[in-house]
Amino acid sequence: MARLLLTLGVVLVLAAALAAAVGVLAYGTTAPHDGTVEVAGLTAPATIAWGDSGRVWIEGEDEVALAAGLGYVHAADHGWAAALWRQAAQGRLSEWFGADARALDLHARALGFGGLARRTYDALPEPDRAVLDAYARGASAAFAQPGVAQGDAFIVADVVPEAWAPWDALAVERLHAYLAAPAPSADSTWLRAARADTAVARFVEADSAFRAFLGVPDGGYDRAYTLAADTSGTGRQLVQQVSGGDSALGLLAPAILRTPDRETLALTIPGTLVSPGGWSGGLGWGVLLGSGLRLEPYGGPKPPPVYSRIVERDGDETLLEVARDTTGLVLRAGRDGARPDTTAAAASDSLGRGWRVRWRGFRLGTDLGAFRALRAGRVPASFTLLDGAGLVATRAEVRVLGSPLAFAANGTTLVAQDSLARYAAEVLAAAPRGAPPPPDSLVSDSTLRPITPADREVTSAWARDRLRGLIAGLGARDSLDDVLQAPYAYLNGWDGAYRADGIAPSLFEWWLEAHRDFTGHLPDPADSLDAALLPSTLRIARAELRDRYGPLPTDWRWGRIQGGPQFPVLGTRRSAAARRFRNGYGAPGGHPTSLLPGPSIVFPDARPGRAVWTVRTDLRTGAMTLRPPTFRPFAASGVDLDAGPDGPVITLAPSDPMPAEWLTLAPPS
User: Fold this and answer.
1) Cα-Cα-Cα-Cα dihedral sign, residues 94, 97, 103, 109
2) Taking the alpha carbons of 9, 14, 15, 19 in that order, is the dihedral positive or negative?
3) Contact partners, residue 315, CB within 8 Å, separation at least 6
4) Rounded CA gap, 522 and 504, in Å?
5) Residue 314, Cβ neighbours under 10 Å: how many?
6) C-alpha span between 421 and 424 (Å, rounded)
7) Domain boundary assignment for the chain
């Protein structure tokens, strides 16, 4: 009997332990959201409160106290994203994931994110360092909480987040500035050089793998725009579209920041003090995440070597030497682009023929001062890492920052990063003066209203206009064979909207791509030869969709084909614990030429993000309405990711009262 009871007790203990483990993996844990957390080094307390639908309030007596609160919020709510971005920026992914991540670390070390961030911190004036110190104290306090350190992502990866250093925020900022640059793999200059030189080819390959790992593929953060528009009855509005790449990690974290003399609404990037959008004291801003990256021939002297040591999870070490200074990263012709100049031949004073990668981030510096100015309601004098293109606006005026592509008509001013935005500008130009700008349909004035399918219907004027000629070029429907009857019906009734459940968008994209594969150019119905080929290329497109996705047209839905955001690392693992990190669910958005950018195979060198944020700010009141990307990070295996509830709209306003329950970060008593 005693043995039976002992056995039963062991079984019960094991069952309880298993249930606890399953509970952690299934539901995760959270950081404290009330009470008091003592933080060494703080000179003044910060008060934090969480509301429904992702709203966060942070109050403090000054900017330093707000920075501590923001650091805590970022680590508590977005700990995995901030920690993963820090690990990538420092070139330490192989400490977490072993030899498979060594090439990623070599690329990050060659670019120097971590080392340049540390040196930048040391060179900053005391007020900037005080803000970074406070942010690090807040983030470290959150990472020390079991609810954060034992979050499901860290458990699945079997890692423990380290305390946050003050310069870590600068490393993550520098990483995002680099990811905001056009990818070499999407640039014809780079690709021509890569075909001629193995050093460039290897750099491009390493860069592509690095960006893909972080869910920011070849298009980076492009297809973004900011516009200011006068609307009848509501005054001037600032609307911003921010692309987060293909990553399901939340790029933006909105917060209400309060001091006794100022109230600010800011869109912040976890792990940094960057605020690409916001409102403060009547000034609204929208900064495009963009940064220049270019390649040029180089035959000058070798820069002083920069050394770095990489330690992998199993203890293996790699010593890296790169030729990099403030003018750029030098690649010796024919050598490894991810590990430039690591051979004995690199010891000479001259590199001979080679290449130099130019990027402003190879110099010391940060955009901390620029974003501090914006959060204080001032227009910054300049930017350092980012191009600084965008808009600042008040109720009375609109000002363009930097030198973006700009468009103005009918009381609307739009700035964008790329030429495809001119098609979106045509939509704005067609709107009558005083009418609400089209992006108003993407967010709601009502509180916490779920996004409906109609909200995702974003029309491409470019696709709609081109389709008219293609349909006319096909001729009468009765003249087409049976194979083309259904494709013709789908296309003929299409209005150019890229809905997730639409079949016509997929047929249209594959049709244009099939024609380009066959002829080398997109179809021109005015050309008699192109017009004669249209039935054949449409038949090819149908066959390719059938072969790739199945015989049923319902399997060709635009949303199903385009998929959704990816969870870096965890989403690709096969273990049962990682199933909750499958591809996220999200509306695929429109076309690159629409106001809500989306994926396209017609413009393969302009691949926009699927994790798109839409923000509208009322410049009179500061009220902000934000629609985050909608995805389901906890989808179980076998669930149809094309169906399911959408996320809520987040509404923030300076007048929003702080909830009755809050957390205080306080100096030790």
Assistant:
1) negative
2) positive
3) none
4) 18
5) 9
6) 5
7) 225-287+369-457+609-652, 461-496+503-556
Q: What are the Cα distances from residue 620, in Å, to 394, 423, 428?
A: 8, 29, 22
How long is the chain?
A: 669
CA-based radius of gyration for the chain: 26
pLDDT at 454: 45
Q: Which of 241, 258, 251, 280 is nearest to 70 (CA)?
A: 258
What's the rounded Cα separation, in Å, for the pair 286 and 338? 34
Predicted TM-score (pTM) of this structure: 0.86
Residue type, 610: R
Tokens 């709209």 appear where?
A: 649
Sheet strands side by side (includes 305-311): 293-298, 354-359, 328-332, 317-325, 305-311
Tens digits of residue pLDDT in 105-137: 999 999 999 999 999 999 999 999 999 999 999
Q: What per-residue confidence (pLDDT) applies to 33?
A: 86
HSE at residue 50, side-chain half, CA atoms within 13 A, is: 16
Nearest residue to 169 via CA among 68, 255, 94, 248: 68
- Decide if pLDDT at 339 tops 80: no
Q: 3-state SS of the chain: helix, strand, coil percent to 5? A: 40, 20, 40
Q: How many CB atoms lie within 10 A of CB 307?
A: 10
- Cα gap 418→420, rounded to integer Å: 6
Distance CA 384, CA 279 (A): 22
Mean pLDDT of 552-560: 89
Lowest mean pLDDT of 25-39, 81-95, 235-249, 380-394, name the range. Answer: 25-39
pLDDT beyond 50 at 449: no
Cα separation, 208 vs 217, whole angstroms: 7
Question: Does residue 221 carry a pLDDT above 90?
Answer: no
Assess whether pLDDT exceeds 70 at residue 521. yes
Q: Where are the alpha helices (H) located in 493-636, listed in sequence order?
A: 504-519, 528-549, 558-562
Alpha-carbon distance 578 to 156, whole Å? 7
**Res. 441: pLDDT tops 80:** no
Residue 443 per-residue DSSP state: S
Q: How far is CA 235 from CA 78, 184, 280, 415, 610, in A?
A: 35, 42, 17, 20, 31
The band of 22, judged by pLDDT with boundaries at 50, 70 and 90, is very low
pLDDT higher than 80, residue 642: no
